[in-house]
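ok new one. same drill as before - structure tokens go in, u give me an amino acid for every spot. 334 of them this time. try not to just spam alanines like last time pls lmao
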């Protein structure tokens, strides 16, 4: 099984992917795949879904802004993909920076925790709770008409990233959009916080009333590798992006973040077949066809924070992230 590192501009060609979908019934025969869906990409980097209410056969809708390819997804109604990809910020990934002082991954509450597969090799994680706080700051300031928060203190190194919003006790997907182009974290998180909260085509824009029930996840994507065997990846550890040609000979792409397959209880074949349907492949799926897939695997550092945790952090570290206004005396702050 040949492996090739995917670095620099090559990684920016990938369509963004999913980070969580509602449970969908997969056929007892893996070869039959899941429900059909509209295509995710036609050779261009696009957006993909990362955690939706159900239905994995959704297509990714590309929103190209500032020449950065966006990925939005996790099932649900989809749209056609169009747009171009261009790396924003550095084309590579700088040396990993330590998490900001005062934030560690140990002793976190159930709502403030690193996701599965976060970190690798015992090194200190780059993703931090402060990044989730910053996303909440950005969304809060937007919804209440305050000036945007000032530059945060965590590292500004470039990474491909996703911002995911879930809501309620059952943590239903509320929005998820990201990019496979490496973006400087300060501008990338600021942009995709609002894009995922307000412009995910599967959902209406978020409102103030929803804030107290929200959970925010930040995912930083790392360790991209092209592999020669479509089964050469580990469920719960790797995210995967596939590239294939559909029945009409058009190149298509689709992706799932590392947690999707494990959360859905899928094996390798079920995940691949679901991605094919998500990418718009409608013909019967055979093992011979699966062998034609080009697969890239990657890892993710993920941190999740609930709104209550965010408020607790901000009450103790009110100006740490540069937010320039007092916490308003609304009921959900009491």
């Amino acid at each position: 099984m040949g492996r090739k590192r995917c670095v620099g501009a090559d990684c920016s060609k990938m369509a963004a992917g999913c980070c969580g979908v509602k449970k969908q019934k997969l056929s007892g025969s893996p070869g039959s795949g899941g429900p059909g869906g509209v295509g995710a990409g036609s050779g261009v980097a696009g957006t993909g879904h990362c955690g939706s209410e159900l239905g994995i056969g959704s297509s990714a809708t590309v929103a190209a802004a500032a020449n950065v390819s966006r990925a939005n997804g996790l099932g649900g109604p989809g749209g056609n993909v169009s747009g171009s990809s261009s790396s924003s910020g550095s084309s590579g990934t700088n040396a990993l920076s330590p998490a900001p002082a005062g934030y560690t991954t140990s002793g976190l509450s159930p709502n403030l925790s690193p996701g599965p597969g976060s970190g690798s090799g015992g090194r200190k994680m780059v993703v931090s709770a402060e990044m989730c706080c910053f996303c909440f700051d950005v969304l809060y300031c937007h919804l209440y008409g305050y000036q945007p928060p000032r530059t945060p203190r965590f590292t500004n190194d470039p990474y491909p990233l996703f911002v995911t919003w879930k809501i309620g006790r059952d943590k239903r997907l509320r929005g998820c959009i990201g990019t496979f182009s490496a973006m400087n974290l300060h501008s990338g998180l600021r942009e995709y916080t609002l894009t995922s909260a307000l412009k995910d085509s599967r959902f209406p824009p978020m409102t103030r009333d929803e804030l107290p029930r929200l959970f925010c996840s930040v995912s930083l994507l790392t360790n991209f590798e092209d592999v020669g065997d479509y089964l050469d990846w580990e469920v719960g550890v790797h995210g995967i992006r596939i590239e294939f040609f559909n029945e009409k000979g058009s190149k298509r792409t689709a992706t799932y973040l590392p947690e999707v397959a494990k959360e859905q209880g899928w094996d390798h074949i079920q995940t691949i077949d679901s991605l094919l349907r998500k990418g718009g492949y409608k013909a019967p799926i055979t093992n011979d066809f699966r062998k034609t897939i080009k697969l890239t695997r990657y890892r993710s550092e993920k941190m999740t924070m609930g709104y209550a945790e965010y408020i607790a952090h901000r009450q103790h570290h009110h100006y740490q992230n540069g937010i320039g206004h007092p916490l308003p005396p609304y009921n959900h702050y009491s």
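The CA atoms of residues 39 and 292 lie 18 Å apart. and btw The longest helix spans residues 129-144.
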